[in-house]
Amino acid sequence: MPWRRGLPCGIASDAAGLTEKPDYATGVELAARTVTYQLAETFVISRDSSDESESVVVELRHAGETGFGEGTPIDRYEEDAGAAAEFLNDCGELLGDDPFALDETLAALPAAPHTQAARAALDHALHDLCGKLTGLPVWRLLGLRREGPPTCWTVWLGDPDGMARRAEGAAPRFRRLKLKLGGRDGLDLERVRAVRSVTDVPLQVDVNEYWSVDEAIEALPQLAGVGVEYCEQPLPAGDPGGAQVKAASPIPIYVDEDCHTLADVAACAERAHGINIKLSKSGGIREAVRMAHAARALGLGVMLGCMTESGLGISAGVQIASLCDFVDLDGNLLLLDDPWPGVEFRDGVQLHSDAPGLGVKAREAISDPR
Ligand SMILES: [Mg+2]
To answer: In the CATH hierarchy, which fold is given to the domain comprising 153-351?
Structure first.
């Protein structure tokens, strides 16, 4: 993994006044690599199943501090970790010498498609670095609250009895459950009823694009009848029946696959009551904050989701969770072994550790390839 150093941009960084650490003119050095995590159990949704997850991890060095960030490429959007690491390692010379210049640095990246996870990893590493340089948690740098809503626990798609069994096992630790639906076997409502019969924990469902307009219009009132709070992405992204389903639904519709970046938010208001922001779709914290505010201006609800990723990726979501109505930040809890401890799971809420930056630390030292 070669280290790439940003070329000094010739502008003195006024960030130097924030710490006593010297050497601000040395540029920001970047190295990116892929990592693979084993899941605690096979994770099944409507379109695929997986036993492991791949991410890209960025390490930035500047003025004696090191910032880390993780992004998780999403197959659905034709992204993969190897390409993400390659993209980032090619961007090293664009980083300049001021890690606080996030707008300038992120705008300097090439406009290549399928690079959202890579952008997220860099955005997160810059936030982590800025937090460590100032001695502040990222949520404080952003002027936000430490605590967001409780995270849901995701019950992966299976037969109704199996989902009920897993839901019953998880329910004591969590204050809400998210059920993956879209089995295309006529059993989706039975799945919800089976889970409802074993727990009173609030339920939400995610169909991952696997219902037609007719199926959605038939199923949504029945979901309301068993107390489901909201339904995520019932239709394929871009389905022309979105507005019709929104109008017919007695419970809120949230869109995930329909909503990636700020540019998508306004159109989502026509087909949904809320958006699911994920940092590996948005390209990181900075764009996610813009999306949350745009959604509020349009009267939309805001949910924050995640992928199966380590505590490093989840810690970035934790920083902005307080901007959201609903939070799904269970990705690190789905791993067999989280190599980035630090996010505190307390009474159903994923919390920042209070350490500077993103507040997590690798369990094993990251090798220094220089
Ligand atoms: Mg979803």
So the answer is: TIM Barrel (3.20.20)
Cα of 98 to ligand 1 centre, how many Å?
36
| pLDDT 10s digits, 275-316 | 999 999 999 999 999 999 999 999 999 999 999 999 999 999
Backbone angles phi, psi at 36, to 5 degrees: -120, 130
- Where is 55: in which H helix or E strand? strand 49-62
CA 114 to ligand 1 center in whole angstroms: 19
Whether residue 146 has pLDDT greater than 50:
yes
Centre of ligand 1 from the C-alpha of residue 328, in Å: 9
Interval between CA 256 and ligand 1 midpoint (Å): 5
CA of 329 to the centre of ligand 1 (A): 12
Q: Edge to edge, what strands does the sheet with 253-255 contain?
A: 153-155, 177-180, 203-206, 228-232, 253-255, 274-277, 301-304, 326-327
C-alpha of residue 146 to centroid of ligand 1, in Å: 24
Q: Determine the pLDDT at residue 12.
A: 36
Q: Which CATH architecture has domain 4-140?
A: 2-Layer Sandwich (3.30)
Q: How far is the CA of 333 from the centre of ligand 1 (A)?
A: 17
Query: Could you tell me the residue ranges of all domains in the chain?
Result: 4-140, 153-351
